[in-house]
């Protein structure tokens, strides 16, 4: 949910939330977008959550403050800084461990916490390093070559069968009337 009195900002956010698709008959993107639209049910739940948002953010900040006081002076541990121009919600408390200074690496700390039944996890692997994208790089060249030969046909759930049949027939006639 996004609220603002800045129409240009809202319009741009809406554009990004709808995959940042530029107004072309084919899918073209000059910006990276997302599919973050939400249903009215999810929006209603989100409105309800706004009532406790300040309390939850405050609790997260208290947890961060505790960790920073307990571990802030330990050599080899750094906390993610809060920029002067922003106020973090501290959704996650992330520490950077320098093994040579701290005396243990991230995995050793994670396993020690796990042995005490305390959940922790490594920070997410960046998207460009995910295995799923290894194949994508190989496939991109082939897809670029095939792009000029592909078209998306109508197939929305509410599409009338007659229109689908007509489309199929038109394609069979190779676009000729």
Keywords:
mainly alpha, Aspartate Aminotransferase, domain 1, 177 residues, 2 strands, 7 helices, two-stranded antiparallel sheet
Question: Can you tell me the number of structural domains?
Answer: 3
SS elements, strand count: 2
Helix count from the secondary structure assignment: 7
CATH architectural arrangement of the largest domain: Alpha-Beta Complex
Strand content: under 5%
* Amino-to-carboxy terminus distance: 47 Å
Concise summary:
This protein is mainly alpha-helical and 177 residues long. The chain has seven helices and two strands. The longest helix is centred in the middle third of the chain and has 19 residues.
Can you characterise this structure?
By secondary structure, the protein is mostly helical. It has three domains: 1-51, no CATH class; 52-123, Aspartate Aminotransferase, domain 1, CATH 3.90.1150; 127-172, no CATH class. The chain is 46% helix and 3% strand. It has helices spanning 7-17, 40-50, 53-71, 99-102, 106-115, 132-146, 161-172, and strands at 77-79, 95-97. It has a two-stranded antiparallel ribbon with strand order 1-2. The two termini are 47 Å apart. The model has no long low-confidence stretch (mean pLDDT 79).
Topology:
Blueprint: H1 7-17, H2 40-50, H3 53-71, E1 77-79, E2 95-97, H4 99-102, H5 106-115, H6 132-146, H7 161-172
Antiparallel strand pairs: 1-2
């Amino acid at each position: 949910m996004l609220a603002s009195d800045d129409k240009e900002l809202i319009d741009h956010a809406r554009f990004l939330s709808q995959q940042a698709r530029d107004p072309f008959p084919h899918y073209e993107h000059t910006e990276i977008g997302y599919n973050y639209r939400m249903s009215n049910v999810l929006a209603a739940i989100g409105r309800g959550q706004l009532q406790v948002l300040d309390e939850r953010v405050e609790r997260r900040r208290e947890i961060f403050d505790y960790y920073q006081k307990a571990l802030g002076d330990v050599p080899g541990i750094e906390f993610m800084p809060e920029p002067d121009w922003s106020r973090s919600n501290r959704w996650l408390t992330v520490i950077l461990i320098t093994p040579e200074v701290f005396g243990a690496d991230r995995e050793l700390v994670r396993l020690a916490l796990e042995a005490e039944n305390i959940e922790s996890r490594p920070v997410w692997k960046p998207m460009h390093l995910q295995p799923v994208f290894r194949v994508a790089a190989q496939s991109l060249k082939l897809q670029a070559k095939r792009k000029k030969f592909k078209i998306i046909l109508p197939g929305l759930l509410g599409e009338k069968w007659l229109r689908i049949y007509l489309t199929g027939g038109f394609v069979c006639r190779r676009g000729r009337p």
